[in-house]
Amino acid sequence: MIVTTKKLFEAAYGKYAIGAYNINNLEQTIGLFRGNLRSQAPFIIQISKGARAYSDKVFLEGLIRSADEVFPEAIFAVHLDHGDEETAMDCIESGFYSSVMIDASHEDFETNIAITRRVVDAAHARGIVVEAELGQLGGVEEHVQVAEADAKLTDPKQAREFVERTGCDSLAVAIGTSHGAFKFSGTQSLHFDVLADIQKELPGFPLVLHGTSSVPQDEVARINAAGGKLEGAKGVDASQFKQAAKLGVTKINIDTDGRLVWTRVHREVFRDHPEVFDLRNPGKIFIEEYAKYIAEKNAYLGSAGQLPAVRALLG
Predict the structure, then answer these.
(1) Tell me, what's the pLDDT at 182?
(2) Between helices 217-225 and 256-272, what is the axis angle to 10°?
(3) Quick one: pLDDT at residue 137?
(4) Positions at the binding site
(5) Alpha-carbon distances of 215 from 62, 178, 258, 283, rounded to whole Å
(6) Which positions make up the binding site for dihydroxyacetone phosphate?
(7) Strand partners, 81
(8) What is the pLDDT of residue 177?
(9) Closest Cα partner for 228 from 219, 215, 239?
(10) pTM: predicted TM-score of the whole model, two decimal places
(11) Virtual torsion, Cα 147, 138, 190, 88, nearest 10 deg
């Protein structure tokens, strides 16, 4: 069942965070649904601008519609991740997405507000909810590239003004995470003091964290053992997710980790079985490994086991 993120956030606020997972193909889609149903978790499917260009938006929409039919017990939202204004408007017009993100965080404050307001007005007219972003994460994710020197944390006072003037339904905030597999070095971590101040300015308002893949070190080690070169990759400690949820974070984005699982499975299969040429062999392994990973991640988020309560809330 496809619902809006607004409904999911109402159920989760202050208690747990909902996993927002990016997909690009059939195998990820199947593994994502299986993992969430095994762990009985509501979830958010994210489609990025890059994913829409990779396989054409119609293919991805078809996969999700099919999965909704094959897994009727699932409750999820369909969300555009990191959309520019043109892409956000296209998704709104399509009538398929229940949620869109407009990311104008690279613009100055007033321009960010103006662009976000236009998207909000168009989306709300069609019953679609909007995520916006204030502050900038460093790192690289598809078309989003921000040098660490240019990254900046979200200003709590600005956050309140931004939400009031744009009318957005949730806000992605920058509190020290970054995109990609190389998030931290040394003892860097999340700025929970900043997050707490933002929550004080926006009590009860859903907050979002991007760049929160954990970059599991066992995955990195196995990739490197199979010929990869990811020395120094380090992510967010998953044990911090529940603390973030208590401070108003209702959505946590996870993309890099899924790519790591995909890379590890395929590198190991082709290393250990060089005679293999059937693409379904590693595909079957990946589906199972990804489903297992999703279920484990939902336990950290606190969303595991919440599906019955969400279903009851939706009536």
Answers:
(1) 46
(2) 30
(3) 62
(4) 82, 103, 133, 179-180, 210-213, 253-256
(5) 30, 12, 9, 21
(6) 180, 211-213, 253-256
(7) 48
(8) 67
(9) 219
(10) 0.90
(11) 160
pLDDT given at position 146: 43
Burial class (CB in 10 A: 0-12, 13-18, 19+), 141: buried
Element (H, E) at 235: none
Q: Which residues of the chain have pLDDT under 70?
A: 137-151, 177-189
According to the model, what pLDDT value does residue 149 have?
45
Are the C-beta atoms of 169 and 121 separated by less than 8 Å? no
What residue segments make up the domains of the chain, in order of their start? 5-314
248 torsion bin: left (phi>0), alpha (psi -120 to 50), beta (else)? left
Residues 6+ apart with CB under 8 A from 101: 79, 80, 81, 82, 83, 88, 130, 131, 132, 133, 172
Triad 137, 56, 70: Cα angle to 5°: 95
Q: How high is the pLDDT of residue 178?
A: 56
| Residues forming the active site | 81
Correct CATH for 5-314 of 3.20.20.70, 3.30.70.1050, 3.30.450.20, 3.40.50.150: 3.20.20.70
Tens-place pLDDT, residues 50-73: 999 898 889 999 999 999 999 999
Residues of each annotated binding site for Zn(2+): 82, 103, 133, 179, 210
Residue percentage of the chain with pLDDT more than 70: 91
Token reading at 179 = 């995109």
